[in-house]
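The authors assume throughout that readers already know how a fold can be written as discrete tokens. The format is easy to grasp once an entry is in front of the reader. For illustration, here is how one protein appears when written out as sequence plus structure tokens:
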Amino acid sequence: MGEAHGYEIFDIHQHMGSTADAHGFATEGAVVSGANAQELAARLKFMDRAGIGATVAIPGHNYNRSAGVASTAAENDAIAAYRDATPGRFPVAVGVIEPLDQAAAVQEVVRIHQELGLKGVSFHTEFQGVTIDSPWMMKILEKMFDLKMVPLIHTSNVVLHEALWRLGKVARAFPGETIVALEPFFTFDGMQECFFIADVAPNVLFDTASCFHTDLAIELARQFGAERIVYGSQYYSQLKPNERAFVKNAVVRDDIIATERLSREQKQLILAGNTKRVFGL
């Protein structure tokens, strides 16, 4: 448990919690109101089968927000509790912050840092009503960096809210701070754009979740350094093991392990070492 083909794996991208609340309907196996024992069992089964020893715990982004800031605070409390219940597998948890909550969002950043010990924040601005480089995003990020917290920013590049060029602007505004781009390899065009972002923004790390073509991710690591890539599965809460999620994850993982273009040390950085370094483990 905790290794695949002799490599330690520390996953930077797993979401925990409701997958149905904000949709108004629930598909078979959906988690409707937070994680539970069945969800945890399914997740640990996926992780064990995939050789994932540990993961960063991230809330989902489609939770029910009808209570406003209180809804967000409840999600953050829940992810901290998820971490605390199984710390060996979930040693790091990050929160969720809604930029449209403005000053209250900044206050919630301080709370989750001081009271909950969360080490970062996940943003998925496609669902949050702002762009990556919006003024309130910048204010929130400034407070996070003051507190030594790490932003995990979804950049699928399929909507203008999450365009990679916006991430480049943010990264260059905070050149000394580490920023993790989640799902930047989602499309072929996005993967090509990542080479430009890697060049102009050396403080950005790129997550492998939803990787369109592993060869391009490996080439980015070869050109800009393996320390720029972090392994992510993008596993969501399920009430039973998800075969499709496992197969998709295994292809990227096995391609990284099998390549002859990277050394064993470089592969281990991508699969675990970089994530551990980012979060000070």
